[in-house]
Amino acid sequence: MKEKVITVSSYGIALLSENAVSTFLKENKIRSKKLLKIFQENQSLYLDSLAKGVWIPILPVDSIKYQIKTSNLGEAFGDEWEKTLEEDGFNLNVYDSFWIASIGLLSDLAKESFEAESIFYETLDGDKLYQGFKFRYPSGKYTVKIEGYRRRIEKAFPEPNFGYLFSLDKVDEFCGYKDPREDDNYFFNVAQIK
Question: What is the residue range of 158's domain?
Answer without folding.
Answer: 4-188
